[in-house]
Amino acid sequence: MSLLAKLILRVLAVVALCLACAGAWTMVEANNAIKREVVATADRMERESRNLAWREVMFPGNEGSHAKLAFPEWRSSDTLRIVGPGYCVRLEWTGDVPASICGGGPESGTAPAWFVKLNDLLFGAFEPVERRVMVGRHEVGSIAAQADAGAAAQQAWRQVSVVVGVASAMAAAIGLLTVALIGHALRPIEIIIRGLKLLERGDLSVRLPDFAAREFAHVARAFNELTERLALSTEQRAAVTRRLFEVQEDERRSLARDLHDEFGQCLTATRALAAAVASASLKDRPDLSESAREIGVISEGMAATLKSTLSRLRPPELEDIGLEQSLEHLVGSWNARIGPGSGPRFQLKVHGGLQDAPAEIALTIYRLAQEGLTNAVKHGAPQAIAITVERRNAPEPQITVTVEDDGGGASVEPVGNQGQGLLGLRERVEALGGQFLAEARGRGVRLAAALPLKSVGAARATSEAA
């Protein structure tokens, strides 16, 4: 669940709690008001009844302590006026039958049944309030005032519904405003997340704006400082890597030169000497002649191995005939080595001109093609291996190279001493500001790299500065 959703749920929970508290407080106040009105009704009726009693005392023929008061009908408009709707009064004169009156009956409408039950459960029934009617020192009657249960529940419901309705409208407005404010306040989080995703994909040029909120501004400054340090350390590491590969290529050239000049000449002399011994001893020592011929065969095999090793150490075609022709020669040598009909077929597709490819990129492309072919044959059983090199000018000038086979090789770089070829290719490509990918594709493996041409000058300048 998102942070915005959690905050909204918490706001709704607080609003619901406030509404519940408002409803409970209103119910308590409504019941207290009813109780106060019952007491006030009893007091008003006691005063009115006492006044009626005094007027009856003044009538002729009602003297004496045992005289019966002949009161007129007491349910007059004046009496009804002091009994509120929903309240009932029982008046009992001494020696007379008790009489009751309710003030106008319950108000229109009824409270929901669940509210009536809840109100009775929380507050119970209303106790009657009793008063004695005194004339002088004599008690002439008694009064009991009580609230009607249905009318009391209706009055409480009316007050609760009004208060809760107004509070709900205010809470809804405040909630919507709060949600809008929270959404606006958390908008920088989306920008920060987009920046983190770009950084995860390797875009070290991403920067966050200076947010108005102080907390997000601190995060933005820390993020920008981190990306700057990462960009600087990445450039320094790339410069060191490029320098290491330059040293490695120099060592390869030096080793190839020494092998060609020293070991190659020794093999040539060995083959010549073996041929001479075989020819001279053919009549007198046929066994020696056979051994000399075997030495010659072994020397020829070693010479072929040396030639293959020299081609891997230092591809001379790059300097002599260029990248495209060197790749054609590489593919042709593999086809010739495997032989027709006895193994996989190697294909090369070139789109766009590669004549002006910088030396670093040309060498990296050649090494990637060379390692891709070796990896496909060594770790799988492909029937077809294709190398595709394409120059693109949009959205930015770059050269892409892909080596793909159908034989189920290994695209994951093994741990330990194996898999150094793919690891070295990745380091070569990333050192030039490019991207490298090794993945399974169908039954085979696909190696792909994209090398931007514009980064070569900057990479060379950084390397020289380092």
TrEMBL record:
HAMP domain location is 183-235
- Keywords for this entry? 4Fe-4S, Cytoplasm, Iron, Iron-sulfur, Kinase, Membrane, Metal-binding, Phosphoprotein, Transferase, Transmembrane, Transmembrane helix, Two-component regulatory system
The Enzyme Commission number assigned here is 2.7.13.3
The residues forming a coiled coil are none
Query: What PROSITE patterns does the database record attribute to this sequence?
Result: HAMP
* The keyword Calcium belongs to this UniProt entry's keyword annotation: no
Q: Name one GO molecular function term.
A: protein dimerization activity
Q: Needs which cofactor?
A: [4Fe-4S] cluster
- Report if keyword Transferase is assigned: yes
Q: Which domain of life is it from?
A: Bacteria
**CDD domains this protein is in?**
HAMP, HATPase_UhpB-NarQ-NarX-like
Q: Which reaction does it catalyse?
A: ATP + protein L-histidine = ADP + protein N-phospho-L-histidine
Gene Ontology CC annotation, any one:
cytoplasm
InterPro entries in the record, alphabetically?
Answer: HAMP_dom, HATPase_C_sf, HATPase_dom, Sensor_HK_TwoCompSys, Sig_transdc_His_kin-like_C, Sig_transdc_His_kin_sub3_dim/P
Q: Which residues cross the membrane?
A: 162-186
* Compartments (UniProt record): Cytoplasm; Membrane
Q: What SUPFAM superfamilies does the entry give?
A: ATPase domain of HSP90 chaperone/DNA topoisomerase II/histidine kinase
Q: Which Pfam families match?
A: HAMP, HATPase_c, HisKA_3
**Matches recorded under PANTHER family:** NITRATE/NITRITE SENSOR PROTEIN NARX-RELATED (PTHR24421), SIGNAL TRANSDUCTION HISTIDINE-PROTEIN KINASE_PHOSPHATASE UHPB (PTHR24421:SF58)
**Functional note:** Member of the two-component regulatory system NreB/NreC involved in the control of dissimilatory nitrate/nitrite reduction in response to oxygen. NreB functions as a direct oxygen sensor histidine kinase which is autophosphorylated, in the absence of oxygen, probably at the conserved histidine residue, and transfers its phosphate group probably to a conserved aspartate residue of NreC. NreB/NreC activates the expression of the nitrate (narGHJI) and nitrite (nir) reductase operons, as well as the putative nitrate transporter gene narT.
Name the record gives this protein: Oxygen sensor histidine kinase NreB
